[in-house]
Amino acid sequence: MVPSDHHLRAMDRFVDLSCVRSLLAPTYSSTGRPSVDPELMIRMLLVGYCYGIRSERRLCEKVGLNLAYRWFCRLDLTDAVPDHSTFSKSRHGRFRDCDLLRQVFEAVLTRCITEGFVGGRQFGADASLIKADASRDSKVRAEDWSAGDTVTRATQEYLDTLDDMAFGVSTSVQPKTLSPTDPAARFTAANGDRPFFAYSTNYLVDLEHAIIVDVEATAPIRQAEVACVREMIVRTKETFGPHPDTLVADTAYGAGDMLGWLVDEQEIEPHILAFDKTERGDGAFPATAFAFDHAANEYTCPDGKKLKKYWREMRKPQSGVCKDDTTRYYASKHDCSVCPLKPRCTPGAAVREIARHPHEDAREHARQLAKTDAYVASSYARKKVEMLFAHQKRIIRLDRLRLRGPNGAKDEFHLAATVQNLRKLAKLIPMTPKIA
Predict the structure, then answer these.
(1) Sheet harboring 306-308: ordered strands across?
(2) What crossing angle do the helices spanning 383-394 and 373-381 adopt, rounded to 10°?
(3) How far is CA 261 from its chain centroid?
(4) Given 67, 125, 236, 416, which is the most exposed site by the fewest CB atoms within 10 A?
(5) Are 332 and 305 spatial neighbours (Cβ–Cβ below 8 Å)?
(6) In this structure, how many other beta carbons lie within 10 angstroms of the beta carbon of residue 345?
(7) Pairing of strands 246-248, 122-131
(8) What does the pLDDT look like over 268-327, one tens digit per residue?
(9) Tens of pLDDT along 106-122?
(10) pTM of the model as a whole
């Protein structure tokens, strides 16, 4: 009764859940009433995310009525559909204890790699805001909030992530507003609309075929998202082997520390616009107009004069590194006072000063790459990541979370990414028509 060209038939070829029962075996009893098959629950969740059925109660109704859904879930016409409460009990317990949804995602990714759709030549990274299941009208000031005597699951997860780089320690700035129902969600207005509580879903994508090679949930903070990309690149290499030659991302990932890590430690070409403030608001020469000589450890200004760390011999060797980790170079007052370019160079100070970032070489390398044709091509390829986010929100309907807490966000993001990879496999490898 299920057509041979049905979308679920095309996806079913790549669904291998053989690891599910072995992972969960220690959590099931050998006596008592028969347990609900965990593979059945995972298949039902995949159907729900594939067709945008977000409610588990609604999903159980649909699986009971739709023959294609029953076939995909390996249910016969007379088999009973599990109750919706079974999903909540399993998700909050045994599924999370063994990180099952992560294992399912990695199983599908392994199939993508086996089929040759992950080459590792060019990866793209980006993050997208997803609204949390928390009303903006119920927000409270952070200093007025307390966990209380009865700690909810979402509150306990928030307390557990206070030392997590993806949430608590990603920034020293403490939130001014919290949600009592989901304290880990951050109040943000980053999309230019009314502020709302949100999480960030972070994707690392192989841009050749738009395969998601890693996914992670973080607070919607730039530092957390950048640190997450580092973790995903290292984890992908250690787990599966692919390591990108090029990373494509927007300016949010163009900080000096990130560029230095990519270029110096990972040997990855950053097709990322460097995040800096070299352009001056008063129209004066930017820092990039000054040439740096590594051998002499000095700058040369547009008029040919030198900028040095010290203009006299120091009795004790000095590093010249300031508290912000930059090294400052100064021009001579004698040179600046008579220079005809002074109004365009340093109109508000006696001498010109330049602060050099410790990863300035990597920043300059990124600036030079941004002038190449390859960078332009990468900018177009990066739209594949944005298209995945659009698909996630409009087709899968993951524009707002149903589950609370960091673990709930991780569960939903992993399921969405798994379904997106399955749909991509079904598209890249068409089904062979049966010959009558």
Answers:
(1) 291-293, 298-300, 306-308, 327-331, 353-356
(2) 10
(3) 17
(4) 67
(5) yes
(6) 22
(7) parallel
(8) 999 999 887 777 777 788 888 889 888 888 899 998 999 888 887 766 666 667 777 788
(9) 999 999 999 999 988 99
(10) 0.90
